[in-house]
Amino acid sequence: MPTALRVLLDVSAVPINPVGAGVFTVALASGLASGDEIDLVLLARRDDALRWATIAPGAEVHAEVPTRRPARLVWEQWRGPRMAARLGIDVWHGPHYTLPLRLRTPSVVTVHDLTFFTNPEWHEKNKVRYFRRMIRAAVKRAAVVTCVSAATAKQLFDYAQPAGSVAVIHHGVDHERFKCAPDMTTIDDARLSSLGVRRPYIAFIGTLEPRKGLVDLVAAFSRVVQQYPDLQLVLAGDSGWGMADLDAAILNSPAREKILRPGYLPNDVVPSLLRRAAVVAYPSLDEGFGLPALETMACGAPLVASDVPAIAEVVGDAAILVRPGDATELAAGLDQALAPDESARLAVAGPVRAAAFTWSAAVAGYTAAYKTAHASG
Asked: By the 8 A CB rule, do 112 and 131 touch?
């Protein structure tokens, strides 16, 4: 039997409350640890060993990275190469844009989106400067660059020139958590009631930040609620940076008393919120993949999302797509999704579309990428 590849997965950037790229990294670590093709080594923050030992039983966890971001990024560059040599690593995987630039071990880097280049105003200035430089450097050094959508892979070549191969590996969805579950209705409603959420409601879930299009969603909701006065708008997720515009939009909305911000939701509440929503809105101005859209479809909830390349690639015809940044078109899309016939169509189409996306397929894709990188020497 061939010796398993010894792969280091750098999980040190994953916050305690993961979203997006963090959810992907957690799912990848768990899936790799449960197989027998990869000898998995996890590089974690110093205060995070127990969490990763729980997520990926059987993986070798090295909790050596400083907790604060500036120190963590310096550690990656100066200590990472020595750690790879010391631990006998065959392949290093940077799942969040960056790699140690002096690394001699074959490497894989994952690029989620190119918004640091296309829309720097959506990010903090210091992050833009750092990630622009590091993305370009990382894709030049990686044996394999993985992109989470074909849309991201296509855009990559406009801003950075990869030296190795490029592989498109879609995210999956946890079909045990995110599913249609009529037998869970009473439990779902009880979970939501404890947060002040009552039906009917339009839901958004994700980090509350400028690129998510939430100012447009508040404006669109203010129009739709005139026809559906019982509606709530639930904006679920941690507050990110640049909240002033959203705070002002909610404060000035005539429907502000019907807008609820419950914060970051526990894992078991997220599927409940999606399943019981009249509509889920995902009006992001751009995405590299759009994992909440996929999770929404898996739960059978009607979805209205932005017509940007990556989201369109993921949802197909199982959602209503609207022009990003257009509150009027978003309101029309929400109104369309609330209509009984369209709501019923989307409730059937969503789970069918989502069934094609699995974390097991993603894990197989990354395993193949590691083998390619290792073969490159």
From this structure: no
Query: How far lies 223's CA from each of 204, 216, 233, in Å?
Result: 17, 11, 12
* CA of residue 248 relative to chain centroid, distance: 26
Are the C-beta atoms of 322 and 303 separated by less than 8 Å?
no
- Which domains are present in the chain? 5-172+358-376 (3.40.50.2000), 182-354 (3.40.50.2000)
pTM assigned to the model: 0.95
Q: For the chain (length 377 residues), average pLDDT per consecutive 10?
A: 88 94 97 96 97 96 94 94 97 97 96 96 92 97 98 96 96 97 96 95 95 97 97 94 92 96 94 98 96 98 98 98 98 98 98 98 98 93
Residues 6+ apart with CB under 8 A from 201: 231, 232, 233, 234, 260, 276, 277, 278
Closest CA to 8 of 34, 32, 42, 33: 42
User: What residues pair up with 116 in beta bridges, in sequence order?
Assistant: none
* 181 CB-side CA count, 13 A: 21
| Distant-in-sequence, close-in-space partners of 322: CB < 8 Å, separation ≥ 6 | 283, 304, 305, 306, 307, 329, 330, 332, 333
What Å distances lie between residue 309 and 46, 285, 312, CA to CA? 38, 11, 5
Helix (H, G, I), strand (E, B) or coil at 41: strand
Would you state the structure tokens that stand for residue 83, as one six-digit string? Answer: 């750690």
